[in-house]
Specification:
heterodimer; A: alpha/beta; Rossmann fold; 2 domains; four-stranded antiparallel β-sheet; 9 helices; B: mainly alpha; two-stranded antiparallel sheet; about 0% strand; binds adenosine-5'-triphosphate; binds magnesium ion
Chain lengths: ~250, ~350
């Protein structure tokens, strides 16, 4: 089992310091939540882990992998999959195709073999589809498998994106605001799924979430971020009781 | 509406599982096989030109329709394929070897262009491919020893196993076989990881990358496959043209290829074929139009490119799904009559996209 450890990372956009000296560890089997006001730098942490943004200083490792030594497309092979705050699905493809791209990192691909659809490719496809069906069942998405993503309502897209990340068979799942835009009923479903994913699939979850209700129901540990700095870390009760956190949310400079 | 019950994963993997679609494609292939009995040699050679355009359109579809990388210079690859094929034939390489070799030459150049273009998007890519096409036209003109320069070069006839193919129907079947093989190959890609990686790149590079798709590699592969196929189209076309000169592969031709896939419908194989039908008959229609229009307009030299441009713009504005999209809506209308509403085919936008990465 692997631990994600983020050590002293800083990320800057021009003169704007999005993250300064942020460190934390996410142990295996945890649901770890990052909270903080808008613009705190929460998504920037995710983008640093997925190598979309370069960090100025610090290190990130997952198990024995040095994440910062990898190219963006190599991160998923270490067992880290993610979703995006603004939903980045393949809009003009079906749900099934989206999930199959989720399996991409674990499939062998060879242009010529694919062009000729050799028997090895067919075997690979069958195996991938087997995986996809399991995830469709887990998240109750069977009825949507043939739909084009562009035709789906918002809540369904969120679930499809979660499902697509699960198809990569991750050890660690990064979820950027999994409950944003969901109605209370969908949020309750999401809370159950997160627990299922953690308990049944044994996946560690690192999530950014504004919905304190969801965080309270699921998260084992919480990290509060404000202005790119860690304000507090601990259980939800500890973090909520912290005066610095309250100050950060109310806009008082602590 | 008919519902298809799926009972095994093979339903999602196999081609043409829908009986109606299978019947339609089967009929079309039968019709294509029977054409030599129905058409005169002249009409048949026009049809062969259509087959060449269908292959070329398929090639551009891979790049622009499936991978989302626009190319304003694909005629350059028709040219590379055509000239390479002619050169190989003149060196005594047999036709059946020369054809794929010509494709490979075009594909290799395409892969290089793809490598250079792998970080470009939209506008910049359009300019880069445009510049490449202009450059290639100049190269074709300047490389006299290989291409015959502006004097042009004669294309040797098709010869199979040492015998020159003389009757039109024989080469027609050859062309048809090449088209069907390439369509099958591209359809195969679409149901396997390489093809899905292309679609992923088209729709969201960021998430494609986070799922393990190597953006640069994916684009190079797309460029390679696309230009390989277009190169083969160029080689086939060379025999129809019988004489190659650089102007044949100019911007007009590139525009025509783009027009074809936009009008046919971006993102589907059928779109490339339907677009080829359209483009093959457009010149005839323009000829007719020239006669009808007042002389001042009808005799304008720029009429053809103007109409091409106008039609592309019109389709992009009014019918972005192309002719194939129109046909799908029509079928939906028939299948669901009388329940069809205009809204059934309208894409539903229920949320706003903000702050996407690109
Ligand atoms: N690509 C970028 N270029 C420039 N500045 C950026 C970029 N991405 C983020 N920032 C800046 O970094 C800071 C942190 O942004 P981030 O998206 O991480 O916030 P967040 O905590 O996820 O907020 P929210 O709750 O609104 O999602 C913000 O000030 C933002 O303007
Ligand atoms: Mg954010």
């Amino acid at each position: 089992m692997s631990t994600l450890s983020v050590r002293n990372i800083s990320v800057a956009f021009g003169g704007n310091k999005a993250l300064s000296d942020v460190s934390f560890d996410v142990g295996p089997g945890q649901i770890f939540a990052i909270i903080g006001p808008n613009g705190a730098g929460k998504s920037t942490i995710f983008n640093a882990v997925s190598r979309i943004y370069d960090v100025a200083t610090g290190s990130i490792s997952f198990g024995s992998h040095d994440i910062l030594a990898l190219a963006p497309h190599q991160v998923v092979a270490t067992g880290i999959a993610r979703t995006f705050q603004n939903i980045e699905l393949f809009d003009n493809a079906t749900v099934l195709q989206n999930l199959l791209v989720g399996c991409h990192s674990r499939m062998s691909r060879n242009m010529l073999a694919d062009f000729l659809f050799l028997p090895s490719v067919r075997r690979g496809e069958l195996a991938a589809r087997h995986r996809v069906e399991e995830i469709l069942d887990l998240l109750d998405l069977q009825h949507l498998r043939g739909e084009r993503v562009a035709d789906l309502p918002y809540g369904a897209r969120k679930n499809v994106e979660l499902a697509r990340a699960l198809c990569a068979d991750p050890k660690l799942l990064l979820l950027d605001e999994p409950a944003s835009g969901l109605n209370p009923e969908e949020t309750t479903d999401m809370a159950f799924w997160l627990k299922d994913i953690k308990e049944e699939l044994g996946v560690t979850i690192l999530m950014v979430e504004h919905d304190m209700n969801l965080v309270g129901r699921t998260a084992d540990r919480v990290l509060a971020l404000a202005n790119g700095r860690v304000v507090a870390e601990g259980t939800i009760a500890e973090v909520q009781a912290n005066p610095d956190v309250q100050a950060a949310y109310l806009g008082v400079t602590a | 509406m008919r519902t298809l019950f799926k009972t095994s994963y093979a339903f999602d993997i196999n081609h043409l599982v829908d009986p109606g679609e299978r019947a339609r494609v089967g009929l079309l292939i039968l019709l294509a096989l029977g054409l030599p009995l129905l058409l005169s040699d002249y009409a048949l050679s026009e049809t062969m030109m259509f087959l060449c355009y269908a292959v070329a359109g398929l090639g551009l579809m891979v790049l622009t329709g499936f991978t989302g990388q626009v190319s304003f210079g694909h005629a350059a690859f028709l040219g590379i394929g055509g000239y390479a094929h002619t050169w190989f034939l003149m060196q005594g390489v047999p036709f059946l070897l020369s054809l794929p070799l010509a494709g490979l030459v075009a594909g290799a150049v395409g892969a290089l262009l793809g490598r250079a273009a792998s970080k470009m998007h939209g506008f910049y890519l359009a300019i880069a491919t445009l510049a490449f096409a202009i450059l290639m036209e100049t190269v074709f003109g300047a490389a006299e020893p290989l291409t015959g320069g502006h004097m042009g070069i004669e294309v040797p006839p098709i010869a199979l196993f040492g015998h020159v193919v003389e009757s039109a129907w024989q080469s027609y079947y050859l062309y048809l076989a090449v088209l069907l093989f390439l369509v099958w190959g591209v359809a195969n890609m679409n149901r396997s990881p390489s093809g899905r990686a292309m679609i992923a790149l088209r729709d969201s590079e960021t998430s494609a990358q986070s799922l393990g798709v190597n953006i640069a590699r994916g684009k190079i592969v797309a460029f390679f496959i696309s230009t390989f196929i277009t190169g083969i189209a160029g080689a086939l076309m060379a025999h129809q043209l019988m004489y190659l000169s650089p102007e044949t592969f100019g911007l007009n031709e590139s525009l025509k290829l783009l027009l074809m896939i936009v009008v046919g419908g971006l993102g589907t194989i059928s779109g490339a074929i339907i677009g080829a039908v359209f483009v093959s008959f457009l010149p005839n229609a323009i000829e007719v139009l020239r006669g009808v229009l007042p002389a001042g307009i009808g005799e304008q030299v720029g009429l053809e490119p103007f109409l091409f441009g106008a039609i592309i713009a019109g389709f992009i504005i009014f019918e972005p799904d192309g002719l194939y999209g129109r046909w799908r809506k029509f079928r939906l209308f028939l299948e669901t009559y009388p329940y069809y509403k205009r809204a059934s085919a309208v894409r539903q936008k229920r949320y706003l996209k903000t702050g996407r990465f690109r």
